[in-house]
Amino acid sequence: MRSDVCGSLAMQLTSDDFRGLISRRFFNNFLPVPATCRFQLAQKLPDFELAGVDGTPHRLSDYQGKPVVLAFTRIFTEKQYCPFCYPHLVALTDAHKQFVGLGATVLLMTSTNMAQSKVVQQDLSLEMPLLVDPSCYSFRQYGTGQALGAPLPAQFVVDGEGRLRFQHLFSFAHPNATPERLLWAVRNL
Questions:
Q1: Residue 132 C-beta-side C-alpha neighbours within 13 Å
Q2: How many C-beta atoms lie closer than 10 Å to residue 56's C-beta?
Q3: CA dist list (Å): 51 to 17, 132, 167
Q4: pTM score > 0.90 for this model?
Q5: How is the chain split into domains, by residue range?
Q6: Which CATH topology does 3-187 take?
């Protein structure tokens, strides 16, 4: 991870401007709901359809035949990132070429609205698709949990048949699976 860049970017992207934070999404995700292990290993995961920031629809089933890393991330607004998730986003961006080298696609999921998500995509120079779900339906479908205004982060590695091979749900001890752990999971499919 680029710790030198990560720290400086965090200062640029985090602000005391809380406009956009208090919204229907914030209230719908305010009360704590713990992450729930909804799927068993080797279980076929439910399909979803979400728009990327470029407007292109993405479905899990579109990636049949190749591994997919689903990275549900916690971003409050285009200015307010979860302190656990921001470094994870930077690390995933740094490791993106390694995932591609293994034939895997990384799909980032955010609950921010389209306008906020476009700013996030640009500010972080994300090379992987950022899928937009302000309704938080996919977060709930995958049991990521929620607290204090936004869904919690989670990561899933899915094989070419759409079956779950690895999952990581949020805990304070281990908020996100490291890119190294996710790469290990992809290599061991």
A1: 19
A2: 11
A3: 27, 6, 23
A4: no
A5: 3-187
A6: Glutaredoxin (3.40.30)
